[in-house]
Structures are given as C-alpha cells and as structure tokens.
Amino acid sequence: MPKLVLCLLGLITLCGFKFNEVEYPLPDFSNNSPEWHARNHDSIPTENELNAILQLAQENKTAFDLSSTDYDQDGIVNQYDPSPYDWRETGYNPFAALAFLNWNHQWNYFAFKGDSLDKAVAALKKAGIAYIRMDFSWSDIEQTQGKWNFENYDRIVKILSDNNIRILGIFSYCAGWAAAPPDFLWCSAPVNNKHFTNYAVEVIKRYKNKVKYWELWNEPDSRTYWRPQDMLAGYTALLKDVYPAAKLIDPSCKILVGGMANGYKLEWLYKNEGKDYFDIVNFHVLISPLRPSPIKSAQSEIAQVKRIMNRFKDNKKRIWITELGCPGVPKGLPIQQWWNGPNPDEQQQADWVKQVYTNLTKEEQVDKIFWAFIRDTKGHFGSGVDYFGLIRWDFSEKPGFKTLEDIIKNWKPPK
Question: Is 90 contained in some domain?
C-alpha cells in the first residue's frame, strides 16, 4: 500500500475524522494481531471511503453512538469489526453461501415466494452465515428500458439487513431488450455497455447504504453465461465502464471480478489490462469430494490463481471463492450425475463441508468461501446439481447444514 495511504490511515485512526463538526474516530487496532491485520486491513476505510460512508449515514439520518462498543449495531463489537461505520464487513468471517433469493419466477418454481424467503433467511441466521451471494437481475429490475422495478429486491435487502446478513450483489445478466438479435439471449454480452452501466448505477444508488460488495457478472469465461466467448475482451471492456461509474456513485463500495468458472482464465483479464478495474479476485472451485485428494486439488487451484496474480504484480488483492460445493443426494434416489461424476450422498456432502471449512479457511489471501448453495433447487438443473443445498427443498436440514452450523459456532476470529 502506498505510504501516503498508510499515513492517511494513521491520521484517521489517531485523530478521527470530522464530519459536520462531529469527530468520528476509528477504533484503535494497534494491539490486534498480525493475522487480524492481514485479514482485515483492506476493510478499514480510507479517508475518501470514510467520507462517503458518513455522507450516507447523514442522508439516512443515522447517528453513531461513539461510546458504544458496537458503532454500527451489527452485533460485532468494534474490536472485531474493521469497518464499524458501514455495511461492508462484519470482521473476518469466511462463512458465506450462494442463495438464489431473487428467484420468484415460474422457471424456478417460485423458489422464494412468500414465506419461503423468511424461511431461507431464518436458516442462514441459524447456521451463522454472515454473507450471501445473490443476483440483482437486470431483466427483473429493468424489464423494459427505462422502467425500474425494485419491489422484490427491496424486500430481500430489508430482511437480510434486519438480520445482519451482508450481501454480495451480482450484476447479472443481459436484459432481453439489451441483448444482440436475433436470439436476445440472457447470456449475451450487452450490445451497448452504457445500458448495462446505467443499470448497475441505478442499483448501487438504491442500495449503497446496505450493499457494499458488487460482482460484475457470473462466470464470464464460460459460454453458458457469456456469449460470444472472446478471451474476456468484451467482458473486460464492460468492467472498465462499470468500475469508475460505481466508484463515482459510492466510493466506499468494492467491486469483484465476475466469478471465474476456471481460475486460470483470470490471466485473460490481466492481458486485457483489466487489473485496475476490480478490487477483489473471485473464482469458483467445484471439485468432487469423491475424487482422490480433493482438498489438495482445491489448494492447487488457489495456488494457480495466486501465481497469476503475482506474475501481473497484483498479489495484494484479497481472494473470494464465491462457489464451492457438491451435491448431497439422498441414498437410493435415481438422479442424473453432476458434471463431476457420481453424486455424493448427503453424508459425503457433509464430510466435504467439514474438509473445506477446516482447511481452506487457513489459506492466505482467501477471505470468504461461499457454499453453493443454501437450498436445493427443484428440477432446475436436471442432475445432482439440484441437490447442492445444505437444506432440502422443503427446508429440512441435511447433515451438511448441522456440520457447518457447528463449525461456525466454534469459530474464533483472529484478535
């Protein structure tokens, strides 16, 4: 980190920050361990970020009780909460999940309609999951150009915020009217990047006081989710348009590169000069726990990504793994196998949960691991992938849910 930034951080910590004649000092982190600083340093707001955060607080008529041990009232005392003025973080906590909470359509069997959303959030809360990853779908929000509909997302953001569960929002995918003819595919690259950027800006404007992490697209290196494939040239161009626009609206937000289906393809992004247009590296690790040495395979993929980051002199950024999971299929159920071979049963899934969160949370630079997914889907994928959930379609808990709940309960963050 540049010396100037370090000096600014020091001044903010020692002297506090004056906003409308009120002084807002940051907690004193000087006695925290080197491990704490390694995990949390990037979440301590810079002067520019703190200014933006306090401006948002004023706009929302929020006052901080500076005598409190929990400034932002998120349930995490300041000692463990590196950014106590905003909704970016709850202290170093790697436990997260992919949750399709915006699914309220016929094509997904109205997965989170009505009280299903409340049940899902209750399950997340019970497990102790601190972060969820979900789409803010362009086709939902701007189904017709210039006409905005945030009703469903307002409801989701409110219930998650009320339960102190943070959100990684995904800007996804292409609205039909903005895609290339003749197919107008949801996975098409936008014909005009300005349309997508405008949508992202409108979403950030609405939720910038509650959502601080945004991911641009999902698996742009996969033909399933981005067409045409061009070694991330088109995707990088979109990233270069969205990133500065996002920072202009909310300087305190963080932008993740779209989760790569294959971590090694991150190299394409760097070769397209995208290095300065994202804050956090993000990729997926989907390995069958039934194969030999699955943890070593996962660690190998992480190491490969780190080597790419080092080669392009970008090794200071943090890493999030936003999809890692496997099926948990009831024994004796005849379901087509997933793309990685035979389907693990529910106990094998639970064993993999334990291996993942026991071993990979120790990896340097890796800050979060999102289990894919929190709840089973209903015939959506037509294979074992429909059973990735830690809870079943009827919201009953699988063994993997209890395993994760116990791990989180006994988790001790660095001090």
Answer: no
Which has the closest alpha carbon to 358: 4, 170, 85, 95?
95
Banded model confidence at residue 2, pLDDT cuts 50, 70, 90:
very low
Does any domain span residue 219? yes
- Please give the residue that has the higher pLDDT: either 15 or 156: 156
Q: 286 and 340 in contact (C-beta within 8 Å)?
A: yes
Q: What is the pLDDT of the chain when averaged over all its residues?
A: 92
Are residues 74 and 111 part of one domain? no
Lowest mean pLDDT among 71-80, 290-299, 323-332, 406-415: 71-80
How much is the CA Rg of the chain, to the nearest whole Å? 21
DSSP 63-117: ---TTSS-TT-SSS-GGG-S-TTSSS-SSS--EEEE--TT--SGGGTTTT-THHH
Sequence letter at residue 288? S
d(CA 234, CA 333): 42
- pLDDT at residue 8 in the model: 42
Do residues 98 and 133 touch, judged by C-beta distance below 8 A? yes
Give percent of the chain above pLDDT 70.
95
Distance CA 403, CA 69 (A): 31
Pairing relationship of beta strands 22-24 and 17-19 according to DSSP bridges? antiparallel
Quote the CA–CA distance of 251 and 245 in Å, as a whole number: 10
Q: What is the DSSP string of 22-78?
A: EEEPPP--TTS-HHHHHHHGGGS--HHHHHHHHHHHHHTT----TTSS-TT-SSS-G
Whether residues 44 and 144 fall in one domain? no
Same domain, 50 and 181: no
C-beta of residue 239 within 8 angstroms of C-beta of residue 274: yes
Range of the domain at 159: 95-409
pLDDT given for residue 127 in this prediction: 97
171 forms beta bridges with 136, 216
Between CA 260 and CA 271, with CA 266 as vertex, the angle to 5 degrees is 145
Count of structural domains, the chain = 2
Report, as an integer, the average pLDDT of 322-348: 97
The last residue of one of the domains, among 21, 51, 80, is 80
* 216/322 same-domain check: yes
CB 220 within 8 A of CB 235: yes
